[in-house]
């Protein structure tokens, strides 16, 4: 079977790439070893993070490093046995997170982020999925005045430089918007530009349905079977295409290493669990418990509790330690009833040390394209990445300069 393009990986990024290629007249097939959006795109806080101009950096203050070093926090946890293998990545991550360098990265990264809501809204309108989007932003809530004031000052800087909108809420104003949160909170930072999604997988599946309704194909297959020329094996036989896009998220290196690329990729794993809200309690916005490091997000299935980052090898045994630490704290913040999932969900976020995704052509293979490494923002940046890749494949002028996200940028590091 012959196509114009094969997209490997059916998460939010891969589906978005396929939709945009199809819109440019490319006969496109989407290939994944599982069902669509059943991996990383299935479990997240459901945020389209317009405010996320600063990607999540490695802490540099001594107090934070000491706190994480004892490995007892909710927002970060590590497998000691994985540290020798992760050390080179973590060292580069730490270097790129230094204040001046992080600010430089933010200015490049913001060029992607500024389009995230409008590109999602365009796809959601085409897919008839607007009902899944909630345009009420999300909140960081605070337990201490010190943290509140630091974050308020940071938000003012982001507003000045990047035009990010927000509201400062005191404790009374917070309880007016979220009356079922514990009254011990001292205020909140309400980011008003982002959009939340009540069913992240449902939104990805809606985009997939749009793709299929216009003749696109989704097939189960093994990306590791990719052969130059370009072809890949699926349940319906071997497919051939002129162009191939690797959008495999945390599994991208399975294919790229086989082709001779040694990209500095690692993963941050994360967990979630759903709960029924006790009694008549309602959570109106996704809420980040800033000092504790977990998030509660209202979903169709229930209240989703998501954890921070777990530094481990991608395929290591599941260790939902952070979820166990977060649950009693979350129950104190908001009245949660029983668990609704039989076991915690776990996913892996694909990360680069400079916190920016890899988007663009493969340096040494014509008609091979990379679209991975989005870390915490794969769901946010899926449609932006899809459009950018499709424009490059089609030979159009890219709507964003893709130069900062090219794959060979790591070779230029000292």
Give the gist of this structure.
It is built from 11 helices and 21 strands. It has 414 residues and is α+β, with helices and mostly antiparallel strands.
Q: What do you see in this structure?
A:
The chain has 414 residues and is α+β, with helices and mostly antiparallel strands. It folds into 2 domains: 2-42 and 201-262 and 353-412, 3-Layer(bba) Sandwich (FAD/NAD(P)-binding domain), CATH 3.50.50.60; 55-84 and 132-195 and 266-351, D-Amino Acid Oxidase, subunit A, domain 2 (D-Amino Acid Oxidase, Chain A, domain 2), CATH 3.30.9. Helices cover 33% and strands 26% of the residues. It has helices at 12-23, 62-69, 83-96, 99-113, 116-127, 145-162, 171-177, 200-213, 252-258, 321-333, 378-393, and strands at 2-8, 28-32, 47-48, 76-78, 133-134, 138-142, 166-170, 187-191, 195-197, 217-227, 231-234, 237-246, 266-277, 287-289, 294-298, 303-306, 309-311, 336-339, 345-351, 358-361, 368-372. Strands 4, 6, 7, 8, 13, 14, 15, 16, 17, 18 and 19 form an 11-stranded mixed β-sheet that branches. Helix 1 (12-23) links the parallel strand 1 and strand 2. The longest helix has 18 residues, at 145-162.
